[in-house]
Amino acid sequence: xxxxxxxxxxxxxxxxxxxxxxQKKHDLLxxxxxxxxxxxxxxxxxxxxxxxxxxxxxxxxDGRYAGSAEILADLHYLxxxxxxxxxxxxxxxxxxDAYPHRVLREVERVLVPEGQVxxxxxxxxxxxxxxxxxxxxxxxxxxxxxxLSVPRLKDWLTLLGFEMQTGAFGCYAPAVTxxxxxxxFRFMEAAGDRWxxxxxxxxxxxxxxxxxxxxLIMPAWQxxxxxxxxxxSVARKVEKADQ
Length: 243
Description:
Layout: H1 6-9, H2 13-31, E1 37-41, E2 56-61, E3 71-72, E4 85-91, H3 100-110, E5 111-122, H4 127-134, H5 150-159, E6 162-170, H6 179-184, H7 187-195, E7 202-209, H8 221-242
Parallel strand pairs: 1-2, 1-4, 2-3, 4-5
Antiparallel strand pairs: 5-7, 6-7
């Protein structure tokens, strides 16, 4: 279930079809998330935080793509302090990890109260999900992932104290590999949004970390600035340790 190989697949016609949709959605969502520290976990060659305006934005990976990530770390044990991040982006991270619960628990730990997480994934209840079940190439990307449905993901997030904010499905064309066929099926985008909106090949969801029963007192600006500087120090130490 390794995510290794998905980066290369995203350069194929089908991969670019998915990537274009996901990049546009990320660009819209992360623009209005404010704070000091934002981190993207996995797929470091693609910047899903590019339109975010936080002063510190990092791409974190486990080291399989040397030179692409600013921070190298085990995603099950993130090198960030508890309640230190304002935004975490998970592009297909959970479905290609053997222990997605651990990753999500770590995300909950490092996010500040009212911090946000944005998750993308392949939808098992779609034409692509059907292709995954019937294909003989089950070890090839993107089919080897453990696709998570949105209801299941919502249950996981709720158990960890997250509240769903928004979400969307996209990419309604069949799982074809050639550019000409993807172009011919473009008419299904508008039809899918109208007639079968939950059957898109991929989805994106945005959730907020809530702490019910707790009065949220935001730290002073200077305190948060100091915390941001501390995060830079941690990142530099991690980079030096990996060199």
